[in-house]
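Internal ticket #5521
Category: modeling
Description: The requester needs a full-assembly model to guide mutagenesis choices. All entity lines are attached below as received. Residue total reported by intake: 186.
Assigned to: D.W.
Attached entities:
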Amino acid sequence: MNAIDEPVFATARLHLDRLAGSDAPSLFAYRGDEAVARFQGWKPATIDEVEAFIARQTAQPFAVSGSWFQLAIREKAGGELLGDLGVHFPPTRDDAIEFGVSLRPDRQGRGYAREAMGAMLDQAFGPWGYRRAVGSVDPRNVASIALLRSLGFRQEAHHVEAYLFRGEWVDDVIFAMLAREWPRSG
Ligand SMILES: CC(C)(COP(=O)(O)OP(=O)(O)OC[C@H]1O[C@@H](n2cnc3c(N)ncnc32)[C@H](O)[C@@H]1OP(=O)(O)O)[C@@H](O)C(=O)NCCC(=O)NCCS
């Protein structure tokens, strides 16, 4: 895969950049929150776990094929950490790029996730050259589904009891969007 430049960019209200060691207490607070973690594979039990996660991210180059990269979502005014946006970079530009977003509970419902995801779709379908983006969600995750639909993702599949999650067989719903379906595509 050709190199993808690391985005450090601003939207109307947000900055997206790398997580830093100083983000650990804030990230631990919201990622450890029961509601935020309910449908996520990772719920940190200790701040050490969060510090180790950030250290791994800090050491990792951007856009490594086959890996997730977690960007910080920050308030532009003041720099406060609002959440994080995970990007999974597939082996080639012909494969689907995948996203996942988590926000602090007290900052949800203000359009921040939509704004951050919109900026990433601009990158993915613009300079990065992907043709397809996907999101994979538990059908009970209504906020995440509303977010994907509000951006224009279409539901493509509903896999029943697709994987074992914390001792329970759970469904997996796949949402997708093609570059030509993104209204802001060139
Ligand atoms: C999913 C999540 C990131 C959404 O964040 P958010 O900042 O509240 O979302 P936004 O304010 O940008 O809202 C985007 C759209 O979703 C809708 N929405 C958000 N939360 C909703 C909810 N609980 N119920 C119904 N609709 C909701 C908004 O109305 C908006 O729709 P619109 O653009 O048509 O007005 C947030 O709920 C979260 O962090 N959840 C926990 C983590 C998680 O499960 N992430 C998904 C992992 S795959």
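Resolution: model delivered.
Comment from assignee: Residues 36, 39-40, 100-103, 108-114, 137, 141-144, 146-147, 150 surround coenzyme A (CB under 6 Å).
Ticket closed.
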